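Exercise: predict the fold of this chain.
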Amino acid sequence: MTILRADVIDSTGLVAELEPEEAVSRLEPALAAMRGAVRQFGGIVSKELGDGLAAVFGAPIADDNHAPLACHAAIELVRRVGRLGDPGLQVRVGLHSGHVVAYMVASEFSKVYEIGGAAQHLAARLEAAAEANQIYVSEACQILADGHVRFESLGLKVLRGFNEPLPVYRVVGASDLSSWRVRRARSVSRFVDRTTERALLGRAAERSSASRQTVLLIGDAGIGKSRLAHEFAQELKADGWRLIDAECSPNLQGVPFSALKRIILSISEVTARDSDSLVDIRQELQAIHQLAIDSILDIPVEDPRWSELEPYARARAISDASCAIVQGLAFQQRTVLLIEDLHWIDRASDAVVAAIASLQSPELAPVVWTAPRWI
């Protein structure tokens, strides 16, 4: 798992002359911001320390994305505390990934999810070494999250309690790379076998000339769903198909239309390389549908026709506009839409993707989704 430690710098000096109630009121907004950031990215607050907290990612429910999620939570944590507008509240964060013993400790009035082992001590030492509003991580965490997050090497640092200097990294920011691109960049072995599955996918593509096809790939984590889907999509691309791919993110599951935005951006990137650009496609849409796409891409929409729409009408316009763009692409060229990690799709995008999957365009096929076994 990955352990996160965070605290407010010089909290004693901030509250030394305050009454207890005033001291709590001064620090509580920062603690609330920390808790919210941890929970947003699936972490568990295991212990609160008065001026900070300890949190874990990857337990009690195992998650192989624990290091990237912890890094994203740390970035969000620093951002949230900074937005409080109190210059005295500055935080520092330490992250380390390693093996631990996790267990519940019951006291007279409460229970604590305790972490045992050397890993928690290294996370605490990294936190103590970090500068204001900085996130320091161990090499073990950096290796697991590299590609998902951007790091700067700080070289070897002497940390209290450790005999030898240890490599330390500073989190610079989040990366826009998808999980698949990160894995592929780290090296991918030669693709072999999967003959039966490839044949099934091939037949689905052949049947697309008569009707739209949708394929859902389901299986346990790590068995090669993403590899199969991308290899199949690349085969179609070599045969003249247009490939639109997007990935649902656990970091954005609570953000409405976040997955749909990735689909639209993927369309923009692909069509920018073709003779027809996304702008040309949007010009063929109704005015209200153009505004809908602008809203998805976070382009400021000042047109009163959009602001005056009821929420359900906006959602319908977004769905219709997205379907029109995808269908327009399919009429121009055979298109395969690959959506990965469907189990992390946000609710708003889910409804739009369902509408896209129901399009009766013979040239749009197949829509390929990958998901874990429990979907």
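Check your answer against the key: Residues 311-332 form the longest helix (22 residues).
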